[in-house]
Amino acid sequence: MDTKIIEYILTIAEHKSIARAADELYLTQSALNQQLLKLEKELGAPLFIRTRNHWELTDIGKLYVENSRQILKIKKQTYTQIEDMAKHWNGTITIGLTPERGIQMFTSIYPSIHAKYPEAIFQPIESDVESQVKMLDANQLDISFQTISERKYKHLIYSCILYEPFYLCVPKSHPLAYSEVLNPADYPYISLSEFKNDLFTLVKKTSTMRAVIDRLFEAAGFKPKLLFESTSMRTMQRLAANSQCCSIIPRCYAVANENVAYFTLGPEASWELAAVYAQNHYLNRAARDFIRMASEYWREHLYID
Fold this sequence. Notes:
Helix content: 40-55%
Strand content: 15-25%
Largest sheet: 7 strands, mixed
Number of strands: 11
Radius of gyration: 24 Å
């Protein structure tokens, strides 16, 4: 099934520019324009309102794009099901991963999944949760691994891998820190309100985790004084180990450290790690095995060194 012209039109619509679309498709602008004009002649109507630097879809163009996306989805679903029936897996499986922990999981299980499905392509894409949701909706991802505080999208299927607590990460030099190195099961509970005069480094506000953290501080009755915001959990843990600030990090980054004391903050300080995919999206055996291997990895490797 040749769907190249559909992919051409979708690329022009995405970039709102035939020049940028041609660059992405490795075509000359003239060749791409000829393909478009040929299709518009066949349809008897223009798909785009053209200006020098900006192309917008006409109403007919919007209809063409909307239905074309469905055609590509049906094509992919059909080919994926045929792979399972023929027991010959040679397609591409796109996998959404959150930064840091996601790619570490991928590189760890890739040798095993590749050995089992040598002709399949497993394509990782690192992105935040909201961007992954948009890619699932656009049929650009087959599987998405997300850390979430709630299952807010009813049109998606969530398969729970584990629930993960957050720990308050405190320098051992802090007056409230304990001196011994404890096992995670023995981390004591402490009220966040005890730290209203302390300096914090927290994950950026765009993170799913930050929404949970902000609710914890609200319940504790104060806004934290921030050293800065970071995208790196490792950085936040190291800053605490260097006695520069306190932080709140997920369990997998809370590795044992003689310079850090960890505290639990109660049941509200947690999130869910889940495999997510769109309803009515067929996952072939290779994709399902990837989810299984990823889930086993995360349940066995609770901490990232």
